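Before relying on records like the one below, remember that each one covers exactly one chain. Contacts with other chains, cofactors or solvent are not represented anywhere in the record.
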Amino acid sequence: MWSIKNGLTEDYPVSTLMQSFYAKNIETKFTKGSTCLQLVKEASNQEYIELQNATENNSGVENIWNKLAANPESEKKLYKDTTAYISYAYSEADTFAKYKDKFFSGHYYSKGTSFLFEDMIKELTDDSSHLTGQDKLIANEYIDAAKNECMLYNETASKTIHSSIQNFK
């Protein structure tokens, strides 16, 4: 909870409950055998779309799909039982699909690498290169926290986290 430690909760809102949890558990250590996993690369060997169930048959989504379908210049993707149009003109989604006569919005992912951990760290480092003084110290601390961030935990580590939550209640 880097933002709590650095007093940035006005910029990154954190509830009072979360602040209390952080304060109580700041010294908690993982038990022997705990493992932290980091996502270092995300890649796909083929393009794909991810549809949002919550948008099923939304009239606005259907209207956008119909508008894109009527435009011969729209980027069209055909999958087994789905016709999708890719458009970056809408903030909520970039994909509008008709799947088995139902309409959905979602997101398009091209083939290839979509995330590299080392690129994220490099971008953070580049973005902070112009900073000086206290701002530079805080940025470096943030980068170090990002380098050590856990994205997944093994069962042993999960038990420690679960125990901390249970003891907090």
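The helical segments are 2-5, 16-25, 59-70, 117-128, 133-147, 155-168.
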